[in-house]
Amino acid sequence: MNNAFKALSDPTRRKILDLLKNRDLTAGEISDHFNMTKPSISQHLKLLKNADLVQDEKKGQFVVYSLNTTVFQELISWALDFIDKGDGQK
């Protein structure tokens, strides 16, 4: 979960996740939304993948990225559990 929080701390990676919320995209389609080099976008995607926030699938000559909602569910569950425990201490 630490890798997920680290990945979420960057605004560029959060915007990538926002884009993937709407539909699966290739790295090229993702990079079209940013004013940075494709290798920089690739590095952000690598960090998101290492945090299990995104998945990739090779389709022909393209790699398509999609959200891994399982990790988001785990994060939400952790946060709700944290809040519930905090409420019980009041």
Report on the structure:
The protein has five helices and three strands. The protein is an alpha+beta fold and 90 residues long. The protein has one domain (2-88): Arc Repressor Mutant, subunit A (Orthogonal Bundle). A three-stranded antiparallel beta sheet has the order 1-3-2. β2 and β3 form a beta hairpin. It is elongated and about 50 Å long. The model has no long low-confidence stretch (mean pLDDT 90).
List the helices and strands and how they pair.
Elements: H1 2-8, H2 11-22, E1 25-26, H3 27-31, H4 38-50, E2 54-59, E3 62-67, H5 69-88
Antiparallel strand pairs: 1-3, 2-3
Which class in CATH terms? Answer: Mainly Alpha
Q: What is the share of helical residues?
A: 55-70%
Query: What is the CATH architecture assignment?
Result: Orthogonal Bundle
CATH superfamily: Winged helix-like DNA-binding domain superfamily/Winged helix DNA-binding domain
User: Shape from CA axes?
Assistant: elongated
CATH fold label: Arc Repressor Mutant, subunit A
**How much of the sequence is in beta strands?**
15-25%
Reading the helices and strands in chain order gives: HHEHHEEH
Record the strand order, biggest sheet. Answer: 1-3-2
Distance between the termini: 27 Å
From the helix content, strand content and strand pairing, which structural class follows? alpha+beta
Unreliable stretches, pLDDT < 50, 5 or more residues? none
For the sheet with most strands, the description reads: 3 strands, antiparallel
Number of helices: 5
Whole-number total of structural domains: 1
What is the alpha-carbon Rg in Å?
15 Å
Number of strands: 3
Average pLDDT metric: 90
Domain HTH arsR-type: 1-87
GO molecular function, one term: DNA binding
Pfam family, one: HTH_5
Keywords: DNA-binding, Transcription, Transcription regulation
